[in-house]
């Protein structure tokens, strides 16, 4: 007799995968109507008093730098007049230079904030006694076809860390599955049961799978809020690769209790666990450059911060009252449900009078990086569509101008790639015009001096040097800030190795940049032409690809680089040498991607003491717990196929039955996959025949109803 059956016969508490429901109304917001702030002040009480000065300093300096750069560029292009190509290039330069100027001035503000050791904000402390919590917080981990063993290992580490704080009773953990692969779904259920047994968390670890995963992650979280949100003052959103320490979670929940007008607190997740060279570069860059960037934006964003979709704590009532997302008009890729929901949810909560804060100095928040440029490209394609979709959200009535700026910056993160490409090609055309076109010295108008179209090489050199200085300055500032933090510096291998790591990351990152530019340009063009990004599972293991796959995917970049290089050489050898950094990255894109996707290469850099981060040199306790859970906890030994797994484990079968949705009632929507799947199972002579006949969607639909499970069990082997 299985454990669940014994519960029923012995009269003990029956198996419950979920707590009692506590519904919370979450109305869909009208983007054209003024929000209901319920009497909250227009300026949150937690807003810094000097925030206006801070914004003037950062934005004003960025505009001043851009104006100066535009003037110098005008002198480069044509000191004696204006040409069409020169005007186009000047406009592009202003748009692109403003982007890097703002990044520089914000990083400069972050540098000052970081080295002066400003407070964490909102009364949060890194050390000292933990606050005694009075409210309950739910940890939400949405998952979509992710490896269940890794997901449960992360949750186990969080659970154990929370238990050590002595305040586990203030937290519940929810696994919110949107998994569509039926084999992964049943494996998730088995891993969930094993997690409960390993931790003893039968009363505060819960699992729910949506059988209709409408609106993706936003719909997943929204459905939880509407069913269970009324029982929790706060919720912490996690990704499948997120890990947070118990102390961090308790301090965040305590800050929410002390500040009832704060709607959201966003941490700075530190990237960990990288093994490939690409992941280790991302990890090092995030750990060393990330803090001055995050401190900078936190310094001048104030209570109008942003939300990154995970590793953040949210006031459930604020989210339910203001963040119900409508569908935007039109067809995909721009219409439909909102993909990059996090930016919009933060903007709507702030519109409703809730403060949104980032606290980047708070330790204990971690995530992982995609292992290769190819994996980043797949993820970026979806993010690109979501960010471009924000064009339709920008006119929302009542948004704070900083919230609109978040969306504009998000759009610009992708639009700048095609602009850089056009800027590059325009520069070639200007050189080509000067090389082949016979100048009209006097034209129709009689002048004392001829008009000589030209590019001033001396001025061009100054503009190039100035632009590169502003572009690279945040990295230099981050390195200097690192030297002020002895513990972090030692964790990065010391000052010399850290400097070498900065150099390696800058050089390899500079070579990858033109490849990323073309990838993002291709994504923007694809979306603008009407192609939807879909919803793909993110790969989180090592990033190696067979060489022929890399050749097939990146040969076009090599070819483009060769054509561009030949064209530049024909126009002018000096132009060719100016473009060498771009050309090298494109021409050698195949070996570059293969090299950076290699785990062996990444580990060789680690052995050499390069691209180190403190979290691997001196792992914090919660990451040790994660590593131990991944290595020591074996996944339940079940058949890979969901049908056979349920037949092989009666306890899993009983739990699966208990977690099925209610039976369909007359008038409910008809599931075509279920109908077809049930017919196929009824007609199958053996279990193997049913496995061959069912498509993945039909298999999931059959396993999602009691009659389907009964039909599977009746089949002979």
Automatic annotation (TrEMBL):
It comes from the Bacteria. It holds the Pfam family Glyco_trans_2_3. It is a multi-pass membrane protein. GO terms for molecular function: hexosyltransferase activity. The chain crosses the membrane at residues 52-71, 83-116, 407-432, 462-484, 496-519, 575-597. It is found in: Cell inner membrane; Cell membrane. GO terms for biological process: glucan biosynthetic process. The keyword Glycosyltransferase applies. Pathway: Glycan metabolism; osmoregulated periplasmic glucan (OPG) biosynthesis. Its EC number is 2.4.1.-. InterPro entries: Glucans_biosynth_gluTrFase_H (IPR023725), Glyco_trans_2-like (IPR001173), Glycosyltr_2/OpgH_subfam (IPR050321), Nucleotide-diphossugar_trans (IPR029044). Keywords: Cell inner membrane, Cell membrane, Glycosyltransferase, Membrane, Transferase, Transmembrane, Transmembrane helix. One of its GO terms (cellular component) is plasma membrane. Residues 236-430 form the Glycosyltransferase 2-like domain. HAMAP family: MdoH_OpgH. Belongs to the glycosyltransferase 2 family. OpgH subfamily. This is Glucans biosynthesis glucosyltransferase H. It comes from Acetobacter tropicalis. The gene is opgH.
């Amino acid at each position: 007799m299985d454990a669940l059956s014994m519960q029923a016969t012995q009269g003990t508490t029956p198996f419950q995968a979920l707590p009692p429901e506590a519904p919370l109304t979450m109305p869909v917001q009208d983007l054209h109507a003024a929000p209901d702030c319920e009497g909250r002040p227009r300026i949150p009480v937690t807003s810094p008093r000097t925030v206006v000065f801070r914004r003037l300093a950062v934005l004003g300096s960025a505009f001043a730098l851009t104006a100066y750069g535009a003037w110098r560029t005008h002198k480069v292009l044509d000191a004696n007049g204006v040409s069409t190509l020169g005007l186009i290039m000047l406009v592009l330069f202003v748009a692109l230079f403003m982007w890097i100027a703002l990044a520089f001035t914000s990083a400069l503000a972050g540098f000052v904030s970081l080295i002066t050791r400003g407070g964490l904000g909102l009364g949060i402390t890194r050390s000292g006694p933990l606050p005694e919590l009075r409210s309950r917080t739910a940890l939400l981990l949405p998952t979509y076809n992710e490896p269940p063993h890794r997901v449960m290992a992360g949750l186990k580490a969080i659970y154990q860390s929370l238990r050590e704080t002595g305040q586990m009773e203030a937290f519940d953990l929810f696994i919110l599955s949107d998994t569509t692969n039926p084999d992964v779904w049943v494996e998730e259920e088995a891993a969930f049961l094993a997690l409960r047994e390993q931790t003893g968390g039968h009363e505060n670890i819960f699992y729910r799978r949506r059988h209709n995963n409408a609106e993706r992650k936003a719909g997943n979280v929204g459905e939880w809020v509407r069913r269970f949100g009324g029982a929790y003052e706060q919720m912490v959103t996690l990704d499948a690769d997120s890990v947070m320490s118990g102390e961090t979670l308790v301090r965040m929940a305590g800050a929410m209790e002390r500040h009832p007008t704060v709607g959201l607190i966003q941490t700075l997740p530190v990237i960990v666990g990288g093994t490939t060279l690409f992941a280790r570069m991302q990890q090092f860059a995030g750990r060393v450059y990330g803090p001055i960037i995050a401190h900078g934006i936190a310094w001048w964003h104030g209570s109008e911060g942003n939300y990154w979709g995970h590793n953040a704590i949210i006031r459930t009532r604020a989210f339910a009252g203001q963040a119900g997302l409508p569908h935007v008009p039109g067809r995909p890729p721009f219409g439909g449900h909102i993909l990059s929901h996090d930016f919009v949810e933060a903007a709507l909560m702030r519109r409703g009078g809730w403060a949104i804060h980032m606290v980047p100095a708070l330790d204990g928040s971690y995530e992982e990086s995609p292992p290769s440029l190819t994996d980043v490209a797949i993820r970026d394609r979806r993010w690109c569509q979501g960010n471009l979709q924000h064009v339709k959200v920008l006119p929302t009535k009542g948004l704070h101008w900083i919230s609109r700026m978040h969306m504009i910056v998000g759009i610009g993160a992708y639009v700048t790639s095609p602009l850089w490409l056009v800027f590059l090609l325009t520069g070639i055309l200007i050189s080509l015009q000067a090389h082949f076109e016979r100048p009209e010295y006097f034209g129709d108008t009689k002048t004392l001096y001829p008009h000589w179209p030209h590019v001033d090489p001396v001025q061009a050199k100054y503009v190039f040097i100035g632009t590169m200085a502003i572009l690279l300055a945040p990295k230099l500032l981050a390195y200097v800030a690192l030297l002020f933090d002895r513990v972090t510096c030692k964790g990065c291998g010391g000052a010399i190795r850290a400097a070498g790591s900065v150099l390696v990351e800058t050089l390899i990152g500079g070579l990858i940049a033109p490849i990323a530019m073309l990838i993002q340009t291709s994504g923007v063009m694809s979306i603008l032409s009407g192609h939807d990004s879909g919803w793909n599972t993110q790969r989180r293991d090592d990033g190696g690809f067979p060489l022929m796959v890399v050749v097939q995917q990146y040969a076009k970049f090599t070819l483009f680089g060769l054509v561009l290089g030949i064209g530049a050489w024909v126009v002018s050898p000096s132009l060719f040498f100016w473009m060498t950094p771009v050309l090298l990255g494109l021409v050698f894109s195949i070996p570059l991607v293969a090299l950076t996707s290699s785990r062996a290469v990444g580990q060789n850099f680690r052995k050499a003491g390069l691209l180190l981060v403190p979290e691997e040199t001196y792992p914090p306790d919660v990451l040790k717990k994660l590593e131990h859970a991944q290595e020591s906890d074996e996944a339940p030994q079940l058949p890979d196929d969901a049908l056979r797994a349920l037949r092989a484990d009666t306890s899993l079968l009983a739990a699966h039955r208990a977690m099925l949705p209610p039976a369909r009632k007359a008038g409910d929507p008809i599931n075509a996959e279920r109908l077809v799947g049930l017919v196929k199972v009824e007609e199958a002579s053996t279990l193997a025949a049913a496995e061959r006949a069912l498509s993945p969607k039909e298999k999931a639909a059959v396993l999602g109803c009691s009659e389907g499970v009964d039909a599977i069990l009746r089949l002979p082997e």
